[in-house]
Design brief:
- The complex is a heterodimer of chains A (about 300) and B (about 325).
- Chain A has about 300 residues and is an all-alpha fold.
- Chain A folds into two domains: about 60 residues, no CATH class; about 230 residues, MetI-like (MetI-like fold, Orthogonal Bundle).
- Chain A contains 14 helices and no strands.
- Chain A starts with 19 loop residues before the first helix and ends with a helix.
- In chain B, α5 packs antiparallel against α16 and α7 packs antiparallel against α11.
- The chains are: A mainly alpha (about 300), B mainly alpha (about 325).
- Chains A and B meet through α1, α4, α5, α6 and α7 of A and α1, α2, α3, α6 and α7 of B.
């Protein structure tokens, strides 16, 4: 194995032999990695293997003996998958923009020494500790006439209080001098926020944009509670239905009989793959942002 | 929902307690209305900036709190305010309600299992990852471990079905080892196994995410300590015992306190998506109980609100306690 010596830290200088302990540790870590990855691989396997072949298979399957794409064809023929994708994309974009706008504005405001800062801070944090619960929330949504609309899928999410506080802390940790000199030049608060503070915080903002996007992508709870029309369902709720009972989709827009070798298991698994496709494709490239942001914000100051 | 959202928020942020308020306390000054007016005017755009957020928080977080009075009322369709008071009737009924006591018990047992088994795991994993010397392998491992955190329980419930279900690969492997075990395979519907499935699948999903905060704490340890230890000839075990663990112990303490503070959260997303009727006996938690009582029977809105309120009050007390302890440990807290 090629070793990049520049990355070896001095703390290991006396231990640079790859000993038995290292071997055992690496083995355990790799094993855990495989335990994480294998279930996903198995989902792919089942989605491309004809059910009859899979049913007769004994023991571990590491490679599909025969590959068919019929399950994917069925999945993509379902209008539910398409409408689910459309709805999820809409709420992910609108919702993330809405979340980020509210979060950034409030985060910046909280760094200022205005009268009432402590009260506002308290009002923002208190809901982390106490909430109204399911029924009052349900009645509220009913009164707001949000039931069975696409708005209910992201409007109630507002801000994630933890993200707001982390971002606010980060803004507060930026040097005041930049802001002061801009203020002397007559820049307004909005201008300072957008032209000075935000450009300095891009990696952090990227991280929290991703976190919000993932939350919106994974939305199912509000849809389950409030959205009765199937055509407004986000992807997760479509997936829930498919996993629990594939007949809903089978009756939806699939011409003729479902062929015998495409039974529910393949379709469930191909639907899982289809619904996590964007995540699978983006995650390896954006992992730096997925992994870094929290520590960035919390350790500062 | 707010409570579930709350749960998600705390779950997404391992470093929660380390956040420090940045507004500084001002020395008290005599009231001078003109000056106050001037100050407010100076910050007018700041008030404008936070207004939308405050409105949204007020509507979706505070108005439901007003609805909590239903816990002391007989709900009528006329509305929250028009419903008549019934004192503590719901609470009296609740204490004798078998499903409730069962759910309370399950919530606490599952939380305890998560703490005892699940809590130490990310710490051990972080210490192990830290021993990997190649930065690139470290990165790859972390990336893999963290991936499931970003997937929904809806999706993971499907994956669990694929692994542990009747046609699942685990059963196929067991069949080769011992056909008798596979014959009465029932893992996903087995009340005895359900809590273990919950705890271990959650560890599988969240352990990698949990390591991030500890690895950050390790990265914050003074490099000189390791150099000194190396010069003194400290081995791996000594290095871990005398430098690494003391270096992250305060982080472990905070995380532990926070974890105990959220004892009443059994993990709605996970349980709701993976449980089924045969496992209600061991797997039904307060949140899922409230959900089913509200939507699947002839709902008594007042009663279920009361159950939710009970949970939230206990939760609140636990969180305040956790907060006080964190502060006593010398950490800055949210308030």
């Amino acid at each position: 194995m090629k070793r990049d010596t520049s990355t070896i830290r001095p703390r290991h200088s006396r231990l640079n032999r790859f000993g038995v302990v290292d071997f055992v540790l690496s083995a355990i870590l790799i094993l855990f990695g495989l335990m994480i990855l294998y279930p996903f691989w198995n989902v792919i396997l089942v989605s491309v293997t004809p059910t009859t072949v899979y049913a007769q298979h004994r023991g571990m399957m590491l490679w599909p003996p025969k590959i068919i794409w019929d399950a994917y064809k069925t999945t993509f023929r379902s209008s539910l998958i398409w409408s689910g994708y459309r709805n999820t994309i809409i709420i992910t974009f609108l919702g993330t923009a809405y979340n980020m706008a509210l979060t950034i504005l409030a985060a910046y405001a909280l760094t200022k020494d205005f009268i009432g800062n402590r009260v506002v801070r308290f009002l923002i944090i208190f809901p982390l500790y106490f909430s109204g619960g399911l029924i009052p929330y349900y009645l509220l949504i009913q009164d707001l006439r949000l039931i069975n609309t696409i708005w209910v899928l992201f409007l109630p999410t507002g801000v994630n209080i933890m993200y707001l506080l982390i971002i606010s802390n980060y803004f507060a940790s930026l040097p005041d001098a930049l802001e002061d000199s801009a203020r002397i030049d007559g820049a307004s608060d909005f201008r300072i926020l957008f032209q000075i503070i935000l450009p300095l915080s891009l990696p952090l903002l990227a991280t929290f944009t991703l976190y919000y996007a993932v939350e919106r992508w994974n939305e199912w709870y509000n849809a389950m509670l409030f959205v009765k029309s199937v055509s407004l369902w986000p992807l997760q709720n479509v997936l829930r239905t498919i996993i629990n009972d594939v007949t809903v989709m089978a009756s939806q827009n699939i011409p003729g009989q479902v062929r015998p070798d495409i039974a529910s298991d393949n379709i469930k698994m191909s639907s899982i793959i289809v619904s996590m496709l964007p995540m699978m494709m983006l995650y390896p490239f954006l992992q730096r942002y997925f992994l870094s942001g929290l520590t960035l914000g919390a350790v500062k100051e | 929902m707010a409570e579930i959202q709350q749960q998600r928020e705390t779950a997404m942020t391992p470093g929660g307690a380390a956040i420090a308020p940045s507004a500084r306390r001002r020395p008290r000054e005599p009231l001078n209305w003109k000056r106050i007016g001037k100050r407010i005017w100076r910050y007018k755009w700041i008030y404008v900036m936070m207004l939308p957020t405050l409105i949204v928080i007020f509507i979706f977080r505070y108005i439901p709190m007003y609805g909590l009075q239903l816990a002391f009322k007989n709900y009528k369709l006329a509305g929250i305010a028009a419903s008549p008071w019934n004192d503590f009737a719901h609470f009296k009924r609740m204490l004798g309600y078998p499903g409730f006591m069962q759910a309370l018990k399950n919530t606490l047992i599952i939380s305890l299992m998560r703490i005892v088994i699940g809590f130490p795991f990310p710490i051990i994993l972080a210490l192990m990852i830290n021993e990997v010397r190649l930065r690139r392998s470290k990165r790859v491992l972390q990336t893999i471990y963290t991936f499931p955190h970003f997937l929904s329980w809806v999706l993971l419930a499907g994956i669990m079905l694929n692994m542990f279900g009747q046609a699942g690969i685990v059963r196929k492997v067991i069949e080769v080892i011992n056909p008798a075990w596979a014959a009465d395979w029932n893992l996903l519907y087995d009340a005895g196994a359900y809590r273990w499935m919950v705890v271990f699948s959650d560890m599988w999903k969240e352990a990698g995410w949990g390591t991030i905060i500890y690895l950050a704490a390790i990265a914050g340890i003074d490099e000189a300590l390791f150099e000194a230890a190396a010069i003194d000839g400290a081995g791996r075990g000594q290095r871990i015992r005398h430098i690494l663990l003391p270096g992250i112990i305060s982080m472990i303490a905070i995380q532990f306190v926070l974890r105990v503070g959220s004892m009443m959260e059994g993990g709605f997303d996970q349980i709701f998506n993976t449980y089924n009727e045969p496992v209600y006996r061991t797997g039904d938690i307060i949140d899922t109980f409230v959900y089913r009582m509200t939507f699947q029977r002839g709902a008594d809105m007042g009663f279920t609100t009361a159950v939710g309120l009970f949970k939230n009050v206990v939760n609140f007390a636990l969180l305040l306690m956790a907060n006080a302890i964190t502060r006593a440990l010398g950490q800055r807290t949210l308030w």
